[in-house]
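--- STAGE predict ---
source: upstream dedup step, 1 unique chain passed
mode: sequence only
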Amino acid sequence: MRKFLKIAGVIVALYAVASGVLLAAMYQPPDKFGAFMAKMPKPFMYVLPFPPLWKMARAGQLRAGDMAPDFSLETVDKKSRVELASFRGQKPVVLVFGSYT
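--- STAGE serialize ---
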């Protein structure tokens, strides 16, 4: 019985450490997180609590009704920059993040 408890304790400890490492990786910028995930064996995705950790790491600080943080982006033609704050109080702005390819 003691041997079983030791083995179970080691398994639980390894699971906690692996989950902690995954959570720490999720807090990294997307390029670093992507490089980390590219090396992660697929079975770990089924064993580790990926969805709850992802929700925790990427929750952010904004809540419904909060003002969006300002940011600046280069235009497609690369000739100028657009700031979100320049539209504040003028008209609604819709941001679409995604790929159309």
